[in-house]
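Proteins fold reproducibly. Look at a sample protein:
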Amino acid sequence: MRRQSNPPTPDSISAPSPTSAEVCVDSQITSDGFARTREAHGPSETKRLPARNEMLARLLAVAGGAIICTDLDGRIAYCSDPARQLLGISGDERGRDSVFDWLPRSESVRLFALYQAMLDGQPRSMAWQAEGSSTWRSVQVQVLDSDPETNVPRLLVNTFGDQTERRLADEAMRRDALVLAQLQDAVVCTDPGLRVVYWNEAAERIFDWRRSEVLGRSVLERLPREVHEQVALVMQGIQGNGRETEAEWEDFRKDGSRVWIHWRSRALLDENGRFLGVVSIGVDVTARRAEERRRVELESQLFHAQRVETIGLFSSGIAHDFNNVLAAILMRAEVALGDQALSAKARANLEDIRRAGRRALAMARRILRFGRHDEQDRVFVDLRALLDEVACFVRPGLSPLVEIKLELPVASPLTLADENRLYQVFVNLASNAAGAMPTGGVMTLSLRETWLSEAKAMTTGTVAPGRYAVVSVVDTGLGMEPEIMRRMFEPFFTTKPSGEGTGLGLAIVATIVGQHGGAIQVSSSPGSGSEVSVFLPTLDGDSRHGGD
C-alpha cells in the first residue's frame, strides 16, 4: 500500500514540536530493521538507538512475527521484515517515519486512540479490513518500556497479523451454524463415548430438550431402553466401517410423548482418519408412520368388506337352495300332521320335525339377509323403546351375577332402519357382553346423540360427517387382546370352544350396521372389560320421540 503521509486527524495528531531539550529528526528504516535518524537542524550525522533498545530490537527479531516498535506518537523505532511485507513498508521512502503513515486513515485514528489508552499499561488490540480487499489485518499493542518516574509508556510493541484466513473460517463457521440452525431436521453430534457435543435448534424443537440440558450427557439417557442395544450396534458399526447408516426407532420427547425418527448417521473423522464421534441427522416421521398405519387399517377394512361380501354371496346361494329343501320338508310335515289316524308318538315326532324345520328356515332367511343389501321393511325406529325391549328379552337369560343397567335419554333420537334387524344387532351384542362376564359383572346399555364434524374411521369402517345416534354396550368382563379386536367381525372367527359358536354373529352385526349407513367402534383391553358403540345416522333436524 502506497500513499502520501497524512496524520490520523489534522487537528488532533501532529508531529511533536522541537524544544531545547530535544531535536526533531527525520527517520529512515534500514535493512536491519533499526530506525536511522539525522538531525533536521545542524550537521548531518547518523545515530543509532541506545544500546538497550538495540538489544530489545534484536530480541524481537529473534522472536519473529510482524512487529513494529513505536513511541506514543507512532514514530517507528523498529520494524521487522514480516511487518514490512505485511504493511508494504520500504526503507527508501523518507518522511514516513510514523506507523500511521502505513495504515488507512480511519484505522490510523483508531490506532492513535488505542495508543492514548495505553497509559494504564494494559495491552490493546484491534482489527480492520484492508481497503478494496477481502484481506483482514490485526494489531496487538503492548508496553515494552515506560518512564520510571511518570510510568508513561515510552516504547510500544505493535504485533501485526493477517486475520484473513481466521476471519474466513469464522465466517464459514457462522454460516454453517446458521444453516444448521435453520434446518428442519435434527442434527446431533456425539463423541466416541456417545456424549452429545452438538444439538441444533431443530433437535430442540422436535424433542423439546434445550441444548444446555443434553450437552455432555449420553445420548442413551433420552432413549427408551428397548432401543439401547439397537443404537449401540449402529454406533459400533459406524465406528468400525465409517459408512453412513440408516435406522428408524421410536424416541421420547421431554414430556414423555413418543416420536418416530428416521436417523442417518456417519462417522466424524479428522484429517488423519482418527474417529472423533458420530454426526446424525434425524427426520421426524411420526406423521408418515401414522399415515402408514391408517393405510394398513383401511386396506384391512377393505379386505374384510370384500371377504364379507364374497361369503355373503356364497352363503346366499347355499341358503336359497337350503330354503327350498326346508320348504318341502315343512310342507310334508304339515300334510302328515293333518292325518287324524296318527298315533300320539308319530304326531310328537312330526311336531319336533316341524319345529326344527322352522328354526332351520329362520336361520336360512338370516343367511339370505346377510348377503343382501336391500332396504326392506325400513321404518322410523325409536331406539330408546327398542333398547327397552332388548333389555327385557335378555334379562331372564342372564346369570344372577350379571346386572343390567340402562342409561337412556328421555327424548329418543330416531333412525330409519329395519327394526327387526337392529333388534338382532343389539341382542347379539348384549349376549356377547354377558358371555364375557362368567363370574358376574355389570352390563350397561346406553343411548346418546353426537355430531361428527368430519369423517371418522372406526373398527368396522368410516362414517361420514353428520348427526349420529350412538348405542353403547359396555361390560366389566374379561376384555380382549388387540388381535381378537382386529378379527372379531370376521366371518367364522370365534373364541368359543368347538361346537359352541358359528363365528357368524358379529359378522352379521357388522353387515347390518353397515347396510344402515353406520359403523361400529370397539375399545377394550385385557381385564378391563369392553365397550362396543354402534353409530347410526339419525334424522336431520331436532326431531325426537319423547318418552312416556
Summary: The chain has four domains: 25-160, 183-284, 290-371, 378-546. The first strand starts at residue 25 and ends at 29.
